[in-house]
């Protein structure tokens, strides 16, 4: 006797036997009970979710001898013939092999005849998206005004390939994936009918592997049962289907926790040698990371919602506290992002190994616990502090905090040259300086923002420098003699005055000023918009800055930002030049241009000899 697969043997024969698709079953059952079917139906969804099965059940419900009714009886002659595929009024057509316009015309000729045995003439077109455009067009009129007692049922996995004119003439039902719980329940019912003992973990593994397809689940179950045995176990199911076991996942998470790259590489080699389905392995890895993250955050309270077998639940409960929540969350996200790339990669084994190594080294790649400190240590300050000019020593820098409110005093940032030393009594050395020692270099003030700092000379070694007559302690700020007895604010003003007095002649570079404004904008400080400063006519002299925009709108925008522009010039180190915004010259008409151009002396001989005239002239800006 020929062996029938489980999918064929347990194909549902009533709406109640179909797993899932409750909404579709309710609508079609009601239509059959009220004897009010539509002219055309479009059933779309992924493979193995019951499209053709429900189409046959609906055909039996409409032509059953006990119709109208919500379910077929499956006992009358009409139901048996439809089940066997021998009913003369129910035609199943393969759209992949009958997709030409001639097939559509032949179908239209057959539609005109009344049903011979049943109550309705029903056409079930499977894989209907394979029909050509001409075949679809040939069916348009028939679908819009079909003969009485004719029903079309299109089944497809790619509804997006249907013309909109066809979809608009059909009732469209989208079949959804079955949930893991619903599919596991369906497989368990089949195993009970087969009187086969089974482990719940094995059934859930099959349901997870089927990814929502009932037919895939039944085929995988048939494959697992082909090995024989008294019961269906999880270990046997993993071995037959080529799936990684929980022991392998346990070793993997141990290696990830220990950041053992050698162990991770060895596990990757084992996965390749055992012929494990890499795509499903990555799916299971993402599911395990999700479970570990939820257990790490919620503890044992989330175990009922995870629906894990007892051994897997115990393993993951022991593993979850060993990882940080940030590590698990980032690993879960990386695995989901890499899943499609690994499956479609020309070297999936190498892509998987790279993913596992990244997961192992993730705490080093993303040091989340130290990230703020590292950013503060590596990101340079946007405003370099101004230091008092003094001889190089090992004393602590001046405290720039205000004595009244504890806030930092404003910084002078417009220096472009080293500040002159403050007046005061010269420091006497205990011994005369050596003639061989090079002269000491004065301290350099930092360059202004938007300008590259000049290379400072290297300080002399500490041993060759003479100590100060009265060195300051670490608790007392070093105050120059010129500002002794004054407040920190007065000392800062004195430093700024000294720097302004020692500044050389300023170099007026408009391009450098534009770059300075762009840097100020990026740092979040007020500055003119960079696009307003480019393309201007610039006349920059010592006491005056004249800007000429090309359009009147730019002139208005510059007027609105005049104060910001003047403040930016001062911050750039340009001082306070008189800012003049010149209105652009209004565009001249073509007639005015032709008149002006015709009066040019160099053109007069040419115009007179050729007796020519200028008919078109354009001003080039």
Automatic annotation (TrEMBL):
Keywords: ATP-binding, DNA replication, DNA-directed DNA polymerase, Metal-binding, Nucleotide-binding, Nucleotidyltransferase, Transferase, Zinc
Residues in coiled coil: none
SUPFAM superfamilies the UniProt entry points to: P-loop containing nucleoside triphosphate hydrolases, post-AAA+ oligomerization domain-like
This protein's GO CC annotations: DNA polymerase III complex
A single GO BP: DNA-templated DNA replication
Subunit structure: DNA polymerase III contains a core (composed of alpha, epsilon and theta chains) that associates with a tau subunit. This core dimerizes to form the POLIII' complex. PolIII' associates with the gamma complex (composed of gamma, delta, delta', psi and chi chains) and with the beta chain to form the complete DNA polymerase III complex.
Protein name: DNA polymerase III subunit gamma/tau
Source organism (scientific name): Desulfovibrio porci
Record gene name: dnaX
């Amino acid at each position: 006797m020929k062996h029938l697969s489980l999918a064929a043997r347990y194909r549902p024969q009533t709406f109640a036997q179909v797993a899932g698709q409750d909404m579709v079953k309710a609508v079609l059952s009601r239509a059959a009970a009220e004897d009010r079917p539509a002219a055309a139906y479009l059933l779309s969804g992924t493979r193995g979710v019951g499209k053709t099965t429900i189409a046959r059940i609906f055909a039996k419900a409409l032509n059953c001898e006990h119709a109208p009714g919500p379910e077929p009886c499956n006992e009358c002659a009409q139901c048996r013939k439809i089940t066997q595929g021998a009913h003369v009024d129910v035609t199943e057509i393969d759209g992949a092999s009958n997709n030409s316009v001639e097939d559509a015309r032949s179908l239209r000729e057959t539609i005109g005849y009344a049903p011979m045995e049943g109550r309705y003439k029903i056409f079930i077109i499977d894989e209907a998206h394979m029909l050509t455009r001409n075949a679809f067009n040939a069916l348009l009129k028939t679908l819009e005004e079909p003969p009485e007692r004719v029903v079309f049922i299109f089944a497809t996995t790619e509804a997006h390939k249907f013309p909109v004119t066809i979809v608009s003439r059909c009732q469209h039902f989208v079949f959804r994936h079955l949930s893991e719980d619903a599919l596991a329940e369906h497989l368990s019912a089949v195993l009970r009918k087969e009187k086969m003992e089974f482990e719940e973990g094995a059934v859930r593994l099959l349901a997870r592997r089927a990814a929502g397809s009932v037919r895939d689940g039944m085929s995988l179950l048939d494959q697992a049962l082909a090995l024989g045995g008294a019961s269906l176990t999880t270990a046997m199911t993993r071995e037959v289907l080529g799936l990684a076991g929980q022991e392998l996942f346990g070793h993997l998470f141990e290696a990830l926790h220990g950041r053992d790259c050698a162990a991770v590489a060895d596990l990757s080699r084992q996965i390749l040698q055992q012929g494990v389905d890499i795509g499903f392995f990555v799916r299971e890895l993402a599911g395990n990371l999700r479970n570990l993250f939820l257990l790490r955050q919620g503890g044992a309270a989330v175990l009922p919602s995870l629906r894990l077998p007892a051994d897997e639940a115990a393993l993951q409960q022991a593993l979850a506290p060993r990882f940080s929540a940030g590590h698990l969350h980032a690993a879960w996200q990386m695995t989901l992002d890499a899943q499609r790339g690994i499956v479609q990669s020309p070297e999936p084994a190498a892509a998987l190994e790279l993913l596992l190594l990244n997961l192992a080294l993730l705490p080093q790649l993303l040091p989340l616990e130290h990230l703020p400190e590292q950013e503060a240590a590596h990101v340079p300050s946007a405003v370099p502090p101004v230091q008092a000019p003094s001889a190089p020593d090992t004393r602590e820098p001046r405290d720039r905090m205000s004595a009244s409110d504890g806030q930092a005093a404003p910084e002078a940032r417009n220096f472009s040259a080293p500040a002159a030393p403050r007046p005061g009594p010269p420091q006497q050395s205990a011994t005369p300086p050596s003639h061989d020692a090079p002269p000491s270099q004065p301290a350099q003030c930092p360059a202004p923002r938007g300008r590259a700092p000049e290379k400072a000379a290297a300080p002399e070694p500490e041993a060759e420098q003479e100590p100060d007559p009265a060195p300051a302690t670490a608790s007392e700020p070093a105050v120059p003699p010129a500002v002794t007895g004054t407040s920190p604010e007065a000392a800062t003003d004195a430093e700024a005055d000294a720097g302004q007095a020692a500044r050389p002649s300023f170099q007026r570079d408009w391009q450098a000023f534009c770059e300075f404004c762009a840097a100020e904008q990026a740092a979040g400080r007020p500055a003119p918009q960079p696009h307003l400063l480019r393309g201007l006519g610039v006349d920059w002299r010592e006491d005056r800055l004249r800007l000429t925009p090309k359009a009147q709108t730019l002139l208005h925008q510059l007027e609105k930002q005049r104060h910001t522009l003047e403040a930016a010039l001062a911050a750039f180190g340009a001082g306070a030049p008189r800012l003049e915004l010149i209105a652009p010259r209004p565009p001249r008409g073509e007639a005015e241009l032709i008149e002006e151009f015709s009066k040019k002396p160099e053109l007069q001989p040419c115009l007179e000899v050729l007796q020519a005239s200028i008919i078109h002239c354009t001003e080039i800006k």
